């Protein structure tokens, strides 16, 4: 464990540029899922910021977002009294996670806030994890490895054969409960996911990453120098649309993964919202004006209108002012905003 009296030398970079299309129709381009109030008074973005405000090793917290969401980020930070504690870096062009991370790191360096040996923790703005103490204790434990120029990934110990997540294959144990990264695996089939779960050699890829600034910059220079060059020239429209995993992590030779055994979700589908939600006696998760009879195992979310159900099971029902979505539980990874051109009138 690190000495908690050491000088704060960690910076948090929160990525808040996602669109959350699989939570349509509640999540929309102008109001993505990280800004939604799904369970309580705090949004996913607010929960992410609040996790770190009292962590003693943190020096700065920053949010990278797009131009369309900057005002919304500011509003939500103000609502939790964090507007003076968190910086907002606005990407001139919306791309993908590799350009976003490089842009955020470059912005921090430009403000003179970091030294080469300082650490940067990068994480999405739209995840849930509990208990947070498990993550923070693991984070503190792997900091010396990150300072020794090992990229650190955080995996989630699987609890089910999930086909909607990417996986990290564990290699040899490098230190106690810390492993070499053997391989990255895209979203598997059901049978493959079941084999991963049984093997106990795979973690879900959380998308959370820790590195020293020095090492992060070296990784970009080695594997994605084009991104740094285009940022330096402010040619934002020319930046490639590429993820951090593809551009950087899958090419690393000394990356390590720290598995986390906790309750976690990327809230990436309505099925995950159902799994997380509080269930009634009939195993329904209900929000809004809902009258249900002989209804079981359903997720029902409404806004203003009354929703009444009778004799149904295993449904996802999401009603907003703009649209009504009805689907079968287990199918929500396929959800995306429909093409509504067929509704257009001449």
> What value does the Rg take, in angstroms?
21 Å
Model regions low in confidence, pLDDT < 50 over at least 5 residues = 1-5
Q: What is the annotated CATH architecture of the largest domain?
A: Alpha-Beta Complex
Number of spatially distinct domains:
2
Question: Can you put this structure into words, describing what you see?
Answer:
The chain has 346 residues and is of the alpha/beta class. 26% of the residues lie in helices and 27% in strands. A 5-stranded mixed barrel has the order 6-9-7-8-10. Strands 12-14-16-17 form a 4-stranded mixed β-sheet, covered by helices on one side. Helix 1 links the parallel strand 1 and strand 2. Helix 6 (213-223) crosses helix 7 (225-232).
Features:
Spore Coat Polysaccharide Biosynthesis Protein SpsA, Chain A, 2 domains, alpha/beta, four-stranded mixed beta sheet, five-stranded mixed β-barrel, 17 strands, 346 residues
Topology, element by element:
Elements: E1 10-15, H1 44-52, E2 58-66, H2 70-79, E3 86-91, H3 97-110, E4 119-124, E5 128-130, H4 132-147, E6 152-156, E7 167-175, E8 178-185, H5 190-199, E9 202-212, H6 213-223, H7 225-232, H8 244-247, E10 256-260, E11 263-265, H9 270-276, E12 285-287, E13 290-293, E14 299-301, E15 307-310, E16 315-319, E17 324-328
Parallel strand pairs: 1-2, 1-4, 2-3, 6-10, 12-14, 13-15, 14-16
Antiparallel strand pairs: 4-9, 5-11, 6-9, 7-8, 7-9, 8-10, 16-17
Helix pairs in contact: 6-7
Offer a concise description of the structure.
The protein is an alpha/beta fold and 346 residues long. The chain is built from 9 helices and 17 strands.
């Amino acid at each position: 464990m690190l000495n908690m009296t050491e000088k704060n030398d960690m910076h948090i970079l929160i990525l808040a540029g996602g669109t959350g299309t699989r939570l349509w129709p509640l999540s929309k381009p102008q109001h993505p899922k990280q800004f939604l109030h799904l369970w309580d008074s705090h949004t996913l973005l607010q929960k992410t910021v609040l996790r770190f405000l009292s962590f003693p090793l943190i020096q700065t917290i920053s949010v990278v977002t797009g131009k369309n969401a900057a005002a919304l980020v500011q509003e939500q930070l103000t609502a939790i009294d964090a507007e003076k504690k968190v910086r907002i870096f606005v990407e001139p062009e919306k791309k993908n996670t590799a350009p976003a991370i490089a842009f955020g790191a470059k912005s921090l360096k430009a403000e003179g806030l970091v030294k080469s040996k300082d650490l940067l923790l990068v994480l999405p703005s739209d995840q849930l994890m509990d208990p947070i103490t498990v993550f923070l204790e693991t984070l503190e434990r792997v900091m010396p490895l990150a300072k020794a120029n090992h990229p650190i990934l955080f995996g989630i110990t699987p609890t089910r054969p999930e086909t909607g997540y990417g996986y990290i294959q564990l290699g040899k144990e490098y230190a106690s409960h810390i492993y070499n990264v053997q391989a990255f695996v895209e979203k598997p089939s059901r049978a493959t996911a079941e084999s991963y779960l049984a093997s106990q050699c795979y973690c879900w890829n959380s998308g959370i990453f820790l590195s020293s600034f020095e090492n992060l910059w070296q990784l970009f220079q080695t594997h994605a120098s084009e991104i740094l060059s285009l940022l330096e020239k402010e040619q934002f429209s020319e930046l490639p649309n590429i993820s951090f995993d593809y551009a950087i992590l899958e090419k690393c030779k000394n990356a390590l993964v720290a598995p986390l055994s906790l309750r976690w979700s990327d809230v990436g589908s309505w099925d995950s919202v159902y799994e997380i939600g509080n269930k009634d006696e009939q195993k329904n998760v209900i929000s809004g004006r809902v009258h249900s009879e002989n209804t079981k195992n359903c997720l029902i979310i409404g806004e203003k209108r009354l929703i009444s159900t009778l004799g149904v099971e295993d449904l996802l029902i999401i009603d907003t002012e703009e649209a009504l979505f009805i689907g079968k539980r287990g199918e929500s990874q396929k959800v995306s905003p429909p093409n509504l051109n067929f509704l257009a009138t001449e």
